[in-house]
Amino acid sequence: MRYISTRARPTGTVGSSKPTFSEILLGGLAPDGGLYLPETYPRIDQSELARWRRLSYADLACAVLARFIDDIPPDDLRTLTHRTYTAAIYSNGRNDSVASEITPLRWLDPPAPERGEGGLAILELSNGPTLAFKDMAMQLLGHLFEYVLTRNGEEINILGATSGDTGSSAEYAMRGKRGVRVFMLSPHQRMSAFQRAQMYSLQDPNIYNIAVRGTFDDAQDIVKAVSNDHAFKTRYRIGAVNSINWARVAAQVVYYFKGYFAATGGAGGNEGQQVAFAVPSGNFGNICAGHIARMMGLPIGRLILATNENDVLDEFFRSGVYRPRATSETAATSSPSMDISKASNFERFAFDLVGRDPEVIRRLWSAVDRGDSFDLSAERCFARLPDFGFVSGRSTHADRLETIRRTHDRYGLIIDPHTADGLKVGSERRTAEMPMVVLETALPAKFEETIVEALGRTPDRPATMEGLEKLPQRVEIMDVSVDQVQRFIVQHVP
Ligand SMILES: *Cc1c(COP(=O)(O)O)cnc(C)c1O
C-alpha cells in the first residue's frame, strides 16, 4: 500500500514518489500541504467480513491495519495490536467480561424486528486511560512510534499544544516509550482541575508539561513558530501527533467494524444488514474513519455527522458551502472538544467527493488557506453526496442538557455532552428500521460541570481516577515566549 497526497502533483514531476505507511507515520502534512490517503481503498468482501466478525479486537485491528500497512511484518503488527488493545488498558478498572470487548456495545433500545425497529445502541470508545475515544488510536500510535523509531535508530520530540483531551491522550500513549519525548504546552490555569491533574501528575521522565501564561491560542502559536523554525525543527527532530496523522485515522477504522459486528448479531450474525453511525464531530477525524470503513465495503447505511454550535461541517453537508471560521468566531461550548473553526481532516473526504482530483483540492484549499470559503452547491459532485451516506445536524447547549436528562431518565445512563450531541442529531436523522450506533467519545466524569447542570449530581468516576487531584504534579510554568520554549527543549534533548 502506497500513499498519495490530496494535493499531489501528477506523477513524473518532482516530489511525486509515493511513500509507505512507515514513511508517513511520523510526519504530518505532505510536503505539498495536502493530507495523505491510501492510493486506493482496500475492498473487503462478504466472506472476509464473516471471518472478521469472530475476531477479538486486537486480531481485528491487525486484520484491518494490515490492509493499510505493508512495511511492517504481519507478526510484528500483531504483537503491536495485542500490546495495545488489552482489557487492562481499556477497562477503567472494571473487572468484567465486558472489558475484554475493548469497545463494548450497549443497547439502549434493543432491536425489535416485529415492530420494524432496528434498535439504538452506544459504542463505548472511552474506556482508555484518559476517558476519551482518542485513546483508541493514540495508544496504538505510541507502540507504532516506538517500533519504527527503534527499527530506524531514530528519536522524535513531539511538540504540541492542548486545551485538554488530545494532549493528555498523547502523553498517556507516549509515556515510557523509547525514542520519544513529549513537550506539551497547555494554557496556565485555564484547564479544569481534573484535566490538570491528569496531565501534570505524570512523572515519566520522557513527558514534559509546560503551562504557558496565556490562552490555548497563544500555546498553539508557539508550536507553530517553533515548527516554522526549520533549522531548529530538523536539529531537534520536532514532530507532532495531531489529528491529521494518518495512522490515527486508520486505527479508528477498526471500531466501525467492531461496532458493526456487535450491532448485527455478534459472532453469529450476518453481513446483509445496513447500520447507521452517529458521530460527534470536530476535526472530522472520527467520522473520516467511518467514511473509509464504508469505502472498504462495510455496510454502513448512514454516517450521521453531529456538530455543536460550531457548525462548520453541518453547514457544508446542508448547503455545499465550506466556510471555516476565525478563532474569534468560534464559540466556547459545553462540548469543548468539538469547538473547531476548521475541520482539519475534512480535506480527506473532499478529495473523494471531488473524484480524487488533486487539482480541484488545490484550488479549493487555496481559498481555505487564505481564510476564504468555497461553495460546491452547483457542482455535480455535491449532487452525489448521498452516495457517500452522509447526513448532518447540529446540537446546542439546551439540546445537550435535554438529551443528557432524557437518556438518564429513560435508560438510567449518564452520557457526556459530546456523546449527547451525537445522540440528539442521530435520533433526528435516523430511520427506525436501521440499527443506529452512537459513538461515545468521552465519559461524563470528564465534564462534571455540565452533568451537574443537567442532572443536579456529579457523575461517577472510574475507580482508577479516584483521588487524581491529590497526586503530586510536575509542570514547568512559562511566559508566552517561543524563546523560552526552545531553550527548554534544548536543555532536555541530549
Ligand atoms: C476529539 C473529540 C471529538 C471530535 O472528534 P474529531 O475526530 O475531531 O471529529 C469529539 N468528542 C470528544 C470527547 C473528543 O475528544
CATH architecture of the domain at 100-129 and 247-455: 3-Layer(aba) Sandwich
Low-pLDDT windows of residues = none
| CATH topology grouping of the domain at 100-129 and 247-455 | Rossmann fold
Q: How many strands?
A: 15
Descriptive overview:
The chain is α/β, with parallel strands linked by helices and 494 residues long. The chain has a domain at 100-129 and 247-455: Rossmann fold, CATH 3.40.50. The protein contains 19 helices and 15 strands. The protein has helices at 21-25, 46-52, 57-66, 74-84, 134-152, 165-174, 193-200, 216-228, 230-235, 246-263, 285-295, 312-319, 346-353, 358-369, 380-383, 397-411, 417-429, 448-455, 482-492, and strands spanning 3-5, 36-38, 105-109, 120-124, 156-161, 180-187, 207-212, 238-239, 275-280, 300-307, 321-322, 374-375, 390-394, 436-440, 476-478. Strands 3-4-14-9-10-13 form a 6-stranded mixed sheet, sandwiched between helices. Strands 8-5-6-7-15 form a 5-stranded parallel sheet, sandwiched between helices. Helix 7 links the parallel strand 6 (180-187) and strand 7 (207-212). Helix 3 crosses helix 10 (246-263) and helix 10 packs across helix 11 (285-295). It starts with a strand and ends with a helix. Residues 132, 134, 165, 243, 280-286, 337-338, 418, 441-442 line the site of pyridoxal-5'-phosphate.
